[in-house]
Amino acid sequence: MATEELLKLIQEDPMGYEGYLAYAKYLETINLKQAYLTYNKN
User: Which one-letter DSSP state was computed for residue 17?
Assistant: First the structure.
């Protein structure tokens, strides 16, 4: 899933966890610290 698609998913449902979870999984390959912060968002 592309970054734009992940961010759109979060924008469509900012209170849902699915978008944040998918984005954090994506971030694990790029920046573990940012992924950790995204996991802790929910």
Answer: S
